[in-house]
Design a protein that fits this description.
Helix content: 40-55%
Strand content: 15-25%
CATH class of the largest domain: Alpha Beta
Low-confidence stretches: none
Largest sheet: 11 strands, mixed
Number of helices: 12
Number of domains: 2
Oligomer: single chain
Radius of gyration: 20 Å
Number of strands: 11
CATH architecture of the largest domain: 3-Layer(aba) Sandwich
Shape: globular
Distance between the termini: 47 Å
CATH superfamily of the largest domain: Isopropylmalate Dehydrogenase
Order of helices and strands: EHEHEHHEHEEHEHEEHHHEEHH
Strand order of the largest sheet: 3-2-1-4-11-10-5-6-9-7-8
């Protein structure tokens, strides 16, 4: 398996991405193709005491900065690292991609270069999050799509259900809709319509989920729009950091290791981009080596389980069931 890594996207610099790639090769036995400045990558590999085959680097120094508009930058910067990485996936030179760079640019490049699965209008990011009692759940969308329709939210549920079955090992994941109340009819028109569409998933849809309940977790997959989802994740990260600092500051103590590990961002790595014709893991721009190694675990699992094919079949089945139901009315 060949995994591409965009080394220029990381806010922490090329060295972090290269070290992560070396760890991925050592821990998972996958071949890694670095996308970035070849001479710098060679130097870093040398300093880390390893050699990297010349053919395993796609050389470029062009990067899409965090402050650039995604659509404009992807169209203009044809030699940008994320563009070249996604093109390599399209051309069959790599099986999966890990991007710690501009999330919007990664989504746009994947959408425009790889294309979307049938029925998908807007892709979504699936992020695994910790919950109570050692449990986990998946949030979709975690920041790929700003403006959504009810149909988008319903497809997030369908795609999230497939992703959770692969990444969480759940045979029949439950799906909930993040809302301001648990009762049907809550929220704006989009949420009300999304509830009706998600209800067609059958018993896997458990209804609306309030913010406090998703950490139980009330559902294995929680569906929302990208803005809300991204705020949820970053707020939770900040709160956990603040709580940990408040508890352990000046005490000389250290967090309970299993508990700290369960709630650590490094345990879950990045998110998986759902709805595109390729396996792409998206990390924080400030992702550590450990976070990038952990997202590699997800992309490897999705690749080995034919994640794209399973996603496409799940979508087709859901759309066919919906069409048959509407015809029967």
């Amino acid at each position: 398996m060949n995994i591409l890594i965009d080394t220029l996207g990381s806010e922490r610099g090329v060295a972090v991405a290269v070290e992560a790639g070396i760890r991925i090769q050592q821990e998972w036995g996958s071949s890694v193709i670095f996308v970035g400045p070849e001479s710098d990558i060679r130097d870093i590999c040398h300093r880390l005491g390893t050699d990297h085959d010349t053919g395993r680097v796609i050389d470029t120094r062009e990067v899409i900065r965090m402050d650039e508009h995604a659509v404009e930058a992807v169209g203009r910067k044809t030699d940008a690292s994320i563009v070249l990485a996604v093109e390599a996936i399209r051309d069959g030179r790599g099986d999966a991609l890990i991007s710690p760079g501009h999330t919007g640019a990664t989504v746009v490049a994947a959408r425009d270069i790889l294309g979307l699965l049938p029925g998908v209008v807007r892709p979504g990011l699936s992020q695994i999050l910790p919950a109570r009692a050692g449990k986990r759940f998946m949030l979709v969308d975690a920041g790929a799509t700003v403006t959504v329709t009810a149909d988008d939210l319903a497809l997030f549920g369908v795609m999230g259900r497939t992703a959770a079955s692969i990444l969480l090992g759940l045979p029949s994941p439950s799906v909930g809709l993040l809302n301001i109340g648990a009762e049907p009819g809550k929220g704006n028109r989009t949420l009300i319509d999304a509830y009706e569409r998600l209800a067609r998933l059958g018993s896997s849809f458990i209804g609306n989920v309030e913010g406090h309940a998703m950490w139980q977790p009330a559902a294995d997959v929680v569906v929302t729009d990208g803005i809300t989802g991204n705020i949820v994740i970053k707020s939770a990260e900040g709160l956990l950091d603040a709580v940990a600092a408040g508890i352990f500051r000046g005490t000389g103590g250290s967090p309970h290791e299993p508990l700290a590990r369960h709630f650590s961002r490094e345990t879950y790595g990045g998110a998986m981009l759902l709805g595109v014709r390729g396996i792409i893991g998206v990390c924080h721009g400030r992702a550590s080596v450990e976070e990038m190694v952990r997202v590699a675990e997800s992309v490897i699992r999705c690749t080995g389980c034919d994640g794209v094919g399973r996603m496409e079949r799940g979508i087709r089945q859901a759309l066919t069931s919906t069409t048959n139901e509407e015809m029967g009315r």
